[in-house]
Amino acid sequence: MARRHHKVLAPKGTVPRPPPEGPAPTLLVLHAAELVTLAGDERPRRGKEMRELRVLEDGALYAVEGVIRDVGESRALAGRYENASEVIDAAGKTVIPGFVDAHTHLVFAGSREHELEWKAEGMSYQEIAARGGGIGLTVQETRKESDDGLYTSARARLDTMLAHGTTTVEAKTGYGLSVPDELRLLSVLERLQEAHPATVVPTFLGAHAIPHEYEGRGDEYADLLVREALPSVAAKTSARFCDVFVEDGYFTGDQARRLLSEAEHLGLSGKVHADEFSDGGGAALAAEVGAVSADHLVHASPEGIRKMTEHGTIAVLLPAASLASRIPFAKARHFVEMGVPVALGTDFSPNCWTESMALVASLAAHQLGLTPAEALTAATINAAYAVGLGREVGSLEVGKRADLLVLDVPDHRHLAYRIGGRVVETVVKDGRVVLHRSP
Ligand SMILES: [Zn+2]
Hints:
This protein is α/β, with parallel strands linked by helices and 439 residues long. It has two domains: 2-97 and 396-436, Roll (Urease, subunit C, domain 1), CATH 2.30.40.10; 100-386, TIM Barrel (Alpha-Beta Barrel). Helices cover 38% and strands 21% of the residues. It has 17 helices and 18 strands. An eight-stranded parallel beta sheet has the order 8-9-10-11-12-13-14-15. α8 (218-236) packs parallel to α9, α10 runs parallel beside α11 and α14 crosses α15. The longest helix has 19 residues, at 218-236. The structure holds zinc ion. The site of zinc ion (ZN) has 4 residues, from loops. Residues 103, 105, 273, 347 line the site of zinc ion.
């Protein structure tokens, strides 16, 4: 287990490393109109804390070899670190932590743009699946695709995510749905962990849907996952989480309990696709089994939300999925008011193709009822906790990774206020500028 955790906590990037004898790369960011630190205790933010951004005006930050060493006012830091090898002048701009996308389905073959025509006819997510679309179609295409093909397309998506400011990405399997195919998807995610500057956190989602060859035999498929898939996933891969889609026609509460308790036993933390299309008791189940997060939660019951509060389960809300599936938006205010930490994700998938956490933050403010400050907290520090990396990323504090964004806006509220624009000007991952867009 230690090996696996170590790998996720200290991912290797392809960002070129300096020769060992060369000077340590140093980065100084100066004069941010707002430097949003999100500093605070080592736990997810909840209730009123979600609005406490800890903003520094004329803010500055200094990093050495990818780690933040100092944060403060520019007049103090400018003289102290004048020999920094890279200096970013953020005058008039807003600096925030890199986005953490807490929920994606990154690796798959093909696309499903034809389903928009079916959606226009009024077909639901379930009707599209019954007509041969949805997850089933993507599974067929993914099983046929080569490892290199899967790697190349996932890598291109990850590039786009990074260019939109996402520096840490949770990525699920779930389009293999057989033991060898699911392990193949995990090996693609491991290649991305090694080769891509973004931090990738793999999640095993063998319980995404019941594959067609097991139709009507959900219990047998769940058995296969428990007996054959989970032991290999835990022993041979860098997966950190196990996720289950709990919904009518997918997996039952009992199946999910079995899977998640076995996963926990093997060292994988739980996540649940919960209450997306109906109240299937997913929120309560996630809380009861000690899952790190329950995701979607469009139809979560008050009782489910109460249990999440009790157990400290993080709510990962996915407004772009509501948009794509034409279902209601989750009631984020209930979660905030009940003291459940709220995080955000894109739900990037063939059903919901967006790489942009800025768009998601904007949807969260316009449709979920979060304030701009809450949306920013949900897209950074709380999302970091939802993927198990809250102590390493998600806020701009001494000792954390220097993952940050310069936004071409005068204050943090513009992030959620602007819908679908390009506010991300510079992306810094592990202390290195990986993207700079000149105005
Ligand atoms: Zn999902």
